[in-house]
Automatic annotation (TrEMBL):
It comes from Sutcliffiella horikoshii. Keywords: Membrane, Transmembrane, Transmembrane helix. The keyword Ribosomal protein does not apply. InterPro entries: DUF1468. The chain crosses the membrane at residues 12-28, 40-58, 78-94, 100-117, 124-146. This is Tripartite tricarboxylate transporter TctB family protein. It holds the Pfam family TctB. Residues 11-147 form the DUF1468 domain.
């Protein structure tokens, strides 16, 4: 009875996920000369997820029939979600091997094309500039080294 509304089930599942995520984020090694260490963002996101999942669990709002119908995902959208999840897994698997700049640019371009954005030149330009700016920001300004992969810098 305590887990009857869907918000409580989701809140409990997300709380458990946030706990596991926080545990793993505390396993990230710290670097003595970094201004902002690599574990700041994962820990911040973990605590934010924990807080929001607790708020979802204690929420007393009753679910309407219209809200229940919104939970049904059409098969076409489910395949799109699974496709993006597949791209994310490939990105994670190849990130260390190929490198951040190339994999991020390929991921952004492929995902935007897969989701229906048809201006390929704009998409390629945004993907390259975005991944290069992130790489330069992390490596040279924040002193957090991202995997260079096959690139010499």
């Amino acid at each position: 009875m305590i887990l009857r509304p869907i918000n409580r089930k989701l809140g409990l599942a997300l709380t458990l996920f946030a706990g596991a995520y926080l545990f793993l984020s505390y396993q990230i090694p710290s670097y003595p000369y970094a201004l902002v260490d690599a574990d700041v963002v994962p820990k911040g996101l973990g605590f934010l997820l924990l807080l929001l999942s607790i708020l979802l669990f204690v929420q007393k709002k009753e679910e309407t029939e219209q809200e229940k119908q919104k939970r049904t995902i059409p098969k076409k959208e489910l395949y799109v979600l699974l496709g993006v999840a597949g791209f994310i897994l490939i990105y994670i698997f190849l990130l260390e091997i190929i490198g951040f700049v190339i994999m991020t640019a390929a991921f952004v371009f492929t995902c935007s094309s897969f989701l229906g954005y048809k201006k390929y030149k704009v998409s390629a330009l945004v993907a390259i500039i975005f991944s290069l700016l992130l790489y330069l920001l992390f490596n040279y300004l924040l002193l957090i080294h991202l995997p260079p992969g096959v690139l010499p810098f």
